[in-house]
Amino acid sequence: MHNTFEYHIFVLYMNTENTKAQMRKGVLEYCILAVLAQDRKYATEILIHLKEAKMIVVEGTLYPLLARLKTACLLEYEWEESNSGPPRKYYQITKEGILFLKELSNGWKELHQAVELLTKNSKST
Amino acid sequence: MNTTLNINLGGQHFYMDQNAYENLDKYLEAIKNHFKDRALRDEILSDIESRIAELFSERITHERQVITVQDVSYVIDTMGQPNAFKLDSEEVDENEESTHKRKLFRDPDDKIIGGVAAGLAHYFGLQVKWIRLIWLILGLFSWGGFIIIYLILWIILSEAKTTAEKLMMRGEPINISNLEKKIKESIEEVAQRVKDSDYEETGEKIRSKTNVFFNKIADVFKNLFGFLRGFLGLILVFTSSLGLFALLTALFTIGLYELFDITWGDPFWPPLDIVHMGIPVWWAIVPVLVVAAIPVIYMLLLGKWIINPSLTYTLGLHLVLLGVWMFSILITIGVGMRYVSGFI
């Protein structure tokens, strides 16, 4: 019953979606640091950036990452009053965070080049 | 009629529908169960609560508007299910596995007396009628002795009242989608009952009579097989439990003798003669009991497996049991050799 062509396509689609989600997850920390490198932001602003770029699908993903980056001392936050609603947590990148971001940025470039090279090679052959 | 609650979420006040509040509470609880590290968890939870408060205030037009179930569903869709947050192995939750395990409850939805039989049926994955039949047979054969066991079970088992408990009783994992499904099911059930009377009538007409006949036969065989399997399994579990109990009693009795230093005076019981050879009684008795107990434990495991074939036992368990068994046999042989050599 499941041996139809459509079913195979469906399974393939599900797998690629899963792989893509895994890929996004892997670079999410890098993206959060990159977003915060420009200036300090509170969680919802970070969310807007990430959602615009389609880096995250569900918002809940962000909070464990922020908490982890903060525990790793790559981020810090301060509370600030807002003119609408309760005070907000503004996140800011630390010195260590900037260094880490540079490392990640290099890593990303290398990875990108490697993937480019491999996909080009396989195309030409 | 519905109660409205006044809640504080992320430092903001909201009016919430009772049902909406319950859904949100379950969702937050699910997130909470997902993170092991306490400090990290509290931080994540308070951040998520603030964001949910923000989303709520975007959705309501004035301050006194009541948050509904739809608002909560929207928020849960936006935030996503907790298992999507999982970063990597460090937050793999151990809860998930334990919630898959079944728990023994009394089932109030399918009861004749106290719901004990229905609860047992869920636990062993059998149809409730076979459990009832077994109760009846055991009750008759034991001249009513099993009625006392039934009463004890009735007293010590708690009733599955909440949806979470009912899921646990059936061995389904407790997560938001399952809870939602269960709640929806119970609502739809009422509506379906009204419809069903119509459907069944037309259904009977369409189905040909032979088809019905063969289905019945297949059903009978399936049920018979399930019953035999369950019966065999229950007998195995029951007898092996009794066996283990007997062995434990033996150990306990010997232990009492040892403890109070009652002299092993009776020379007509050879096994205890070893005392006179200077071997401690423990060395002779415990390995013998273990040698006897491990096959009984296997019978118990087998019985449980027959009842529920989806159970798997780890290789480690087998190896440990086998190892202990071999070791006990060796000691028993050693003690026996010394005992025998005393005669030569």
Name some characteristics of this structure.
A: 125 residues, mainly alpha, three-stranded antiparallel sheet, B: mainly alpha, 12 helices, 3 strands, extended
Textual characterization of the structure:
The complex is a heterodimer of chains A (125) and B (344). The radius of gyration of chain A is 19 Å and the shape is flat. In chain A, helix 1 (5-38) runs antiparallel to helix 4. Chain A contains four helices and three strands. With 125 residues, chain A is mainly α. With 344 residues, chain B is mainly α. Chain B has twelve helices and three strands; from the N terminus they run ββααβαααααααααα. Chain B has helices spanning 18-34, 38-59, 69-79, 95-100, 116-124, 128-141, 145-156, 163-170, 176-206, 209-259, 281-307, 315-341; strands at 4-9, 12-17, 66-67. A three-stranded mixed β-sheet of chain B has the order 1-2-3. In chain B, strand 1 (4-9) and strand 2 (12-17) form a beta hairpin. In chain B, helix 2 crosses helix 3 (69-79) and helix 11 packs antiparallel against helix 12 (315-341). The radius of gyration of chain B is 29 Å and the shape is extended. In chain B, 18% of the residues are buried. Classes of the chains: A mainly alpha (125), B mainly alpha (344). Chain A binds chain B through residues 25, 43-44, 47, 57-61, 63-68, 70-71, 85-89, and chain B through 10-12, 31, 35, 39-40, 43-44, 47-48, 50-51, 53-54, 57, 77-82, 84-85, 87, 91.
